[in-house]
Amino acid sequence: MPQPGNATKTRRRGKVALGSNLPATSGDSSSTLAQALVALADESTDVTRISRFYRTPCVPAGAGPDFVNAVAEIDTVLDPDALLMRLHEIEASFGRERATRWAPRTLDLDLLDLGGMVLPDVAIQSAWRALPPEQQSRQAPDDLILPHPRLQDRAFVLVPLVEIDPDWVHPGLMLTARQLLDRLPEAEKAPICPISPPWTGLSALVKFFQTQ
User: Has this prediction a pTM greater than 0.85?
Assistant: First the structure.
């Protein structure tokens, strides 16, 4: 007979986008991303794949330093809200302040996908995905939207996502990560350049930064 507390928790595979363009007490943006990935890996969450780190020009030009971006794949027992809270806690530990949308930041952790879930429902997710560009900087959802409503528009997300999982399928658009990236203009993709070696896992990333 199953004993209380021994039930197997549901594990879900997810994708998290990482970004930084301001130094933190942890060091430069690359060091911040590496340490954030270490912080994310605990008894509830495994970091299973990590893209290379990419340099992305700040838009518009001159608005701030270039970003360092990456995407990680995770395997977690956390539900979406608990995982989002965990990501926000890690951001705060690196000095992230949420005063202005799309402002320079020490660390940004965006939950892109969790087990193909569409939250809070198809209609609301689609509405946020279709939000006109002029409203995107002025409106933020009160609840978690999955998949992330802007991921299909962002080369700095899709380039590293394609590196680690080109066949990931957007559950609303029914297009793969590779197909979504192919739809974007070359002018948006060309400036995004890798600045690190490929990572074979979290331990390889940690070892690399320990020798820097």
Answer: yes
